Every structure is written in C-alpha cells, then in structure tokens.
Amino acid sequence: MRVAILSRNPKLYSTRRLVEAGEERGHQVDVIDTMHCYMDITSNSPSVRYHGKKLPHYDAVIPRIGASVTFYGTSVVRQFEMMGTYSINESVAISRSRDKLRSLQLLSRKGIGMPRTGFAHSPDKIDDLIKNVGGAPVVIKLLEGTQGIGVVLADTHKAAESIIEAFMGLNASILVQEYIKEAGGTDIRCFVVGGKVIAAMKRQAAPGEFRSNLHRGGSASLTRLSPQERKTAVDAAKTMGLNCCGVDILRSNHGPVVMEVNSSPGLEGIETATGKNVASMVFEFIEKSARPNNTKTRGKG
To answer: Considering just the CA atoms, what is the radius of gyration of the chain in Å?
Structure first.
C-alpha cells in the first residue's frame, strides 16, 4: 500500500517509527506536512496539492495533527476522505476529541466514568461552581489548553476562587473538575487500536507536580489493566469514533475515570515502557481496514 503520514515534523519519534514500521511491512510511506497542503475543491475530482503538484493516490492516511492546527489539519483529512482515501482517524472524530467540552459531554451521555466536572465562562456564583464538583481541592483547566498547559490545582476554596476570577479576567472558558486525590499523581495511558487496548503504561508525576505528562518530568512504567479499565478505554475510544487513540484514565475510589482521549498519541513513551512495537500494530490494523471509501462520515460534519 501507499500510505501518507500527515505530520509537521518527520524527525519526531512517532513519525519516524511509523515510517520504519510501514516500510518494514512492505509499504511505501510518505511524510506530508499538513500545513503545506492546499486543496482543489471541485465537484468531480477533489484533490490535495503539495509543493506545486497534485498528490498521488494514497490507500490510507495517518493523521498526526497537533492541537494548534486542528482546524486546518482536519480540513486536509476531510479532503482525503472526499477523495475516497481511508483515514485511520476520521476528521469528525479528531475534531470531536479535540473539543474538551464536547468530548466530556459525549462521555457523560454514554455513562463512561469521568471526574465530576463544571464548565463556565462568566459564572455569577463562583462559590456554587466549586461546591458543585465537590469542593476544594479542584483542578481548573483552560478549555483550549494542551499537554498540561493551562491546568492548575487549587488546594483551597479561596485559591480556586482567585484562579477562576483570573481566568474570567482573561475572557477564558474553563473546566473545573474534582481532584482525584487517591490517584496519587499517576494516570494510565491506554493505547487503543481497532477497538482493543494494545498497550498500557502508568505515568507518575515528578515530585511536587500533579500533572503526569512525560515531557513535564513524569516517568512511565508497564502496568496491568483491570477488565473495567480496559472496557472504559475501549468505550471512550468508540464514543469519540477513533480507531487509534490514547485514553488517559485515573484510578479513583469509584472506578476508572477518563481524563482525556488523545487522537494523536505519542509512541515513544508507550513503546519504551511496554517494549511493544506499537507502530507495527497500527499498520497491521490499517492493512485490515484500508479500503476505498471505507469512511463512515464521507467528509460530512
């Protein structure tokens, strides 16, 4: 097969590993900078152009789209879908998962475990907003934040009020969530491909830090999932409509709760912690699934 990886940086570990895995399995793999693509939107023959030329036909695309370029990146994926190219993650599903509020509302509707959450822009009663999620300590998140940026832990009620007021002063929309103290600064990253958890790791926050992101000094180790945790991860991926994603789970006193569903999960941490060839498993799924026009949305939405 001929496969395109939509990535802004061919030197990133995840991009390199996907190229290596695809070529090892006998495929031709091209890395295309999403932001340098431009689209010819015509009635009969939509196409994607790149460096002054029409791109050749691809059997499949693997979107590796950063949060900062979601709008344009999903537009490019949608154009490929209009051309009948198979995308491991569809444009609508990527957009759905990137919208933190929408994703939490969808998870809530499906009855999937999640921290008690409040959403606000200019609440008249900040006190009630904090109490409604169980009171301090609470986690306050910017709706547009990524990779732990714009995520603050407020230890006391007064601190929470001050932080919320500060965000309100910046005209920012925020999420206020209960703090899962029993998680102890750890979360579980479940790597889901094709409706199965193919790998899982436990991430431990650095001393003095509550965010377990690896690039913030967190460490990763192999972990064993309970059946409930495995089901929660699979259900969350299915709810978002993602074939390939990372589902971040906290272990709470009332069972696993989903923090985030990531449509472009990194491979370095999970491959290092588990010793599994995750990149090859991604291609294995594509080999089974990539067929012309095998797209649920056909570019809608």
So the answer is: 20
